[in-house]
Specification:
The protein is of the alpha/beta class. The protein is about 20% helix and about 30% strand.
Length: about 650
């Protein structure tokens, strides 16, 4: 899906690092990027902001390289404005996100109130009628007196629409052989899954498995190139997902309106199910309804319902209006998750539990999968490629309100791989995010686990570049826990971002986390306000390793940063690492003084850039830094700066 995010490229040129872009905090204007302060810091090592740049041809670009990745690679500071603008867009548009993604070229990111063009076309081509068994739907009282033909008409329209969406999706893959389609459906998803038994295997066996999987991946690349290389097909793929969401959503609202028109909802108990060629269509009333199996369409009015879902070879739409519901997966690709055919799950209220397997809870593979929960204190629990994960597609999880718990094993909580977009957006509540703990990092550690989650984007080195991931939390005192790779990080020509706009937050990780890029890639962690706590062992907290850029930027609050080494503004192997704190009385602690807090090492006959900058407040250091001072440690192009940089006469700050 080479062009899935091509339309995002325009945003990069609008969201430049110019200091003209400002935001207001506590009635004080601040530049989103502190260009003037950055210029002063770089002067200490005889560099300028224009020197912070990478080439895009260090390796030959592959078919899957997103143009926006190359654009930001040329000017890495731009990822700050990009992450800020995209987060604000999410918070302001929320449910309107999908049409926006389908029409990014219509957006002026200088004014997020601009009109968004969305397709209003429907679907045709489905010729199946709903099968009613005995020839009619058994309509329960009191519905039978008034609903009859109108309900039947709506259910037929649901079926026809789903058939049309399926036909549109099938046409996108019509040029592939049956064996190639089978590879996409079965083999490729399996390649992304890990095995807990790997921690008990010998090195030779692990190496053999890796070579076998690499062989399968090489077989897959020409198939993916055939699909991605067709610009028009992948533009249509975005449109199909958008139109499916709009069309099925309108039908769900029509069913809701019809039922509310003729009955008093809180007295209505029933469950209607009819079978179609693709799966079940169901409408449920008040009370505890149970939905088990393969469903194409479900609308449930209210009640504490139980969903035990199986994947369907067809588009899927589930809308639950009220109740404390339990959603569970009996197979992969359920709970608002898609493989080829788009899938959507919307829950409007209640304290819900989502218990998924892999490829669940807002996952998209060669399609669009989205889960929206509007209200309640919810729990999201699942395994791999989940909770806002996209690979050759779009995966979105949006939670509007409530104090929520998110737990996954791998590739989740805003994850994107090749030609993918993964988004997790939480608007309100004190939330807890945890990723990892199941699949051991057998190549590096005996006691740590892979996470690759929480705003993590991943390319399949060296064949396929990665996608774009964003975990955006608008408000609340939140906790983020990962182990290996997470919290605004990425690997191999990808962009991983995490943003938190308010609250006293805690970020806990072990390695490759908190605004880090490793191996020709880009990572960002942005926190707008609150007294926050950051801990990671190393290669973290604003670190770029191997021709990569990693940035941690915190605007307001009395913050604490703790790490062991290669952190807090560290560039390694020709990377760029930057930590910048705007305001607050902060505490920085580092154990490895030789390579942190403003460090850049030489490699390949030239250097790396590491910047540590604190721009306001009375700060305390254990390590290299010192309050109200500049410092340079023995490195190549590294500098630390702690100065009060916001005088009242220049920005109106701190009056």
């Amino acid at each position: 899906m080479r062009n899935l995010l091509l339309i995002l490229s325009a945003l990069v040129f609008i969201s430049s690092y110019a200091s003209a872009q400002v935001e207001t905090f506590d009635s004080i204007n601040y530049p989103v990027i502190p260009e003037a302060a950055l210029t002063d810091a770089l002067n200490c090592i005889k560099l300028t902001p224009s020197d912070i740049a990478f080439r895009t041809d260090n390796v030959e670009p592959d078919t899957f390289r997103l143009p926006i990745i190359d654009s930001i690679t040329l000017a890495p500071l731009r990822m700050i404005s990009f992450g800020n603008d995209l987060s604000r867009l999410l918070f302001e548009r929320t449910d309107g996100l999908l049409p926006i993604l389908s029409n990014f070229e219509a957006i002026d990111f200088g004014s997020l109130s601009s009109e968004i063009r969305t397709s209003k076309s429907g679907f045709s081509g489905g010729d199946e009628s709903v099968s009613f068994g005995s020839g009619k739907i058994d309509i329960p009282a009191p519905l039978d007196k008034t609903i009859g033909d109108r309900l039947v008409k709506l259910l037929n329209e649901v079926n026809t629409t789903a058939s049309g969406i399926k036909a549109a999706c099938d046409s996108l893959f019509s040029g592939l052989e049956d064996t190639e389609q089978a590879f996409i459906r079965d083999t490729f998803p399996a390649l992304m899954l890990e095995d807990t038994e790997d921690e008990f295997r010998e090195v030779d066996e692990l190496d053999s498995i890796q070579k076998y999987e690499e062989g399968l991946l090489k077989r897959f690349i020409p198939i993916a190139e055939e699909l991605v290389g067709s610009t028009e097909k992948w533009r249509r793929s975005r449109a199909v997902g958008c139109e499916a969401y709009q069309s099925l959503g309108r039908l769900a609202e029509a069913v809701k309106g019809l039922i509310r028109e003729i009955v008093i909802v809180d007295t209505l108990e029933f469950q209607i199910e009819v079978e179609t060629a693709h799966g079940l269509i169901a409408i449920g009333g008040v009370g505890t309804n149970h939905y088990t199996g393969k469903y194409v369409f479900v609308f449930d009015i209210a009640g504490d319902d139980r969903y035990h879902m199986e994947a369907v070879d067809c588009p899927q739409f589930i809308l639950d209006a009220a109740g404390d519901d339990l959603y569970s997966s009996r197979t992969d690709f359920t709970l608002g998750s898609a493989l080829i055919y788009p899938s959507f799950l919307i829950d409007e209220s209640g304290d819900d539990i989502y218990n998924g397997r892999s490829y669940s809870i807002g996952s998209g593979v060669f399609s669009t999968g989205m889960l929206i929960d509007r209200q309640g204190n919810d729990k999201y629990l699942s395994d791999t490629h989940t909770q806002g994960a996209g690979t050759f597609g779009i995966g979105i999880l949006i939670d509007h309100d409530g104090s929520d718990t998110y737990g996954c094993s791998l590739y989740g909580q805003a994850f994107a791989s090749v030609s993918g977009l993964g988004v997790l957006c939480d608007l309100h509540g004190n939330d807890s995010y945890s990723a990892g703990g199941k699949y051991k990092d057998v190549l590096r550690y005996d006691d740590h686990y892979l996470s690759l989650s929480q705003g993590f984007a991943y390319g399949m080195r060296p064949w396929m570049s990665g996608g774009i991931a964003l975990l955006a939390d608008s408000a609340g005192h939140d906790i983020y826990i990962s182990d290996i790779f997470g919290q605004g990080s990425s690997y191999w020509y990808a962009l991983g971002m995490q943003t938190d706009f308010a609250g006293n937050d805690k970020y806990l990780s072990f390695q490759y986390a908190q605004g880090v890029g490793t191996h020709l890639t880009l990572g960002l962690l942005m926190d707008k306000s609150g007294s926050d706590y950051y801990f990671s062992k190393g290669v973290s907290q604003g670190c770029g390793h191997d021709l990569a850029a990693g940035i941690l930027i915190d605007y307001f609050g009395n913050d604490t940063y703790q790490a062991y080494d290669l952190s807090q503004g560290a560039g390694s192997a020709n990377g760029f690492g930057w930590i910048v704190d705007y305001r607050g009385n902060d505490f920085y602690q580092i154990k490895g003084r030789h390579n942190s807090q403003g460090y850049g090492n030489p490699r390949r006959d030239y250097g790396s850039i590491g910047l540590h900058m604190d721009l306001k407040g009375t700060d305390e250091y254990i390590g290299n830094g010192k309050d109200s001072s500049y410092w340079i440690i023995e490195s190549k192009w590294g500098v630390g700066m702690d100065v009060d940089y916001w005088p009242a006469d220049s920005t109106g700050a701190d009056q």
